Amino acid sequence: MTPRLDAISIITADLPASLAFYRRLGLAIPAGAESAPHVEAVLPGGQRVLWDTEDVIRSFDPAGNGRRAGSGWGWRSCATVRRRWTRCTRS
Question: Considering the entire predicted model, what is its pTM?
Answer without folding.
Answer: 0.74
